[in-house]
Structure formats: structure tokens, C-alpha cells
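pasting for ref
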Amino acid sequence: MSEWFEDDSFWKELYPFMFSERRFNVAEDEAKGIRALSKLERGDVLDLACGPGRHAVALAKAGFRVTGVDISPSLLEKAASLAQAQNVDVEWVQADMRHFLRPEAFDLAISIFTSFGYFDDKQDDLAVLRNIRRNLRPGGILVMELMGKEILARGFLPATSEDLADGRLLIQRREIFDDWTRIRNQWILIEGGKATMFRFQHTVYSGQELRDRLLDTGFSDVRLFGGLDGSEYGLNARRLVAVARSG
């Protein structure tokens, strides 16, 4: 039985909400943050779950050699169009992050915009981290950016609604389960009296839980931040960012 993220209609229908113009506009600044946190200005980059290529293209424009990996063909089509429009070369690979393996091929790996924790089996998350470590050269850097459990708990709302730019209404319902390790989401798109429902769930990690998993899978020198700007992972953190070294 396929998992929710393998359904390409999910990414197609929710694309205008998940990847708004504002998110594209901040991609270059976020790429600058990735470069500053990794202390790298050149090299080979793996963008895992690259989506429509916002950060892959921004890093390619900065001079990196980039490989973008995603499971969604529709998102990879968007990514290829973006790269062509920006006149940069990026290698696009359609693959499940649990299975993509290219040992010691990269200096930097990135996982941005809560692209980690999708799997029903939590052991799959560890498998992904082990693969990332194998894909990095000795001393290579991993930068992860996601919604931390502490941030989610601080502002948790069981239901919200939002008018999308294309005129549709998006209703989001959320439920925490499995001893505060997982979140179950129900998103309902309403257009002209027709409702389309999407259900998905993923694991949520605290800073300490993410650090422990990185250390358990062979990373070292794990540092936590409250954003790609390098701010503190404290009470005012907006996101959970982990920077770790391979080996």
C-alpha cells in the first residue's frame, strides 16, 4: 500500500499553498543562510526532497554543483522549468529518499522545509540519515530545517482556514498522537461547493530528539539553531535547524 507522499495529486493540488510566491522570493536568502551555516562556498550539493527546486537552483546560481532528488514527478518538472528559466544546470533525480545512495559524492546535503519524518515506520528516518551520511564525503555537512516539536507545541491550533491566492479555501485540521511523536493532518480544499480532502501524517522531532538521531547514525558536531539565519534555538525560534558533520 502506497504512502501519502507517493500520491502526486497531493503535490499538484496543494502546490499553490505549499510553494507560494513568497517562498520562492526568500529562497536565495535561505540559500545564503545554508552557505553560512555550512561554511561552504563551493562543492557538490545533495538537495534531498528538493520539491520545485527553490534552494537547488539558488545554490547552483551561487556556483555549487547540485543534485536535486524528489519522489514527485510534477515537482521535478517545476524544478527543471525553474532551472531553465534561471539558466543553471542542476541534476534532477526522481527517487525515494530512503533508497537514494551515491556514496561519498557530496560535500553538502540539505533537507529543507520539513522534508523529514514522513514515514509511518520511524526506523525509515534513521535509514535516511544513514544514507545521507554515506552520501557525504568525510567531513561533509548536513543542514536540516524543519518544524520543531517545541515550536509546534507553543502555537498548536487544532484547526485553521486560509483563503488561497487562486480563490480556493483551505481548511486544515491537526491531531497529535503516538505520545506526542506524530501529527495527523487533514487538509480540505473547497472550490465552488466541491471539497477535496487530503490526509497525511509525519513524525515531529524536538531539538534533542533530532540531535540524538543524528549522533546515533554517525554524525558529529551537531549544532542546533532557530532558523537558517543562525539564531538561537530558544523560546523565540521559528524553525528547528540542525547542522551536523559526517564522521
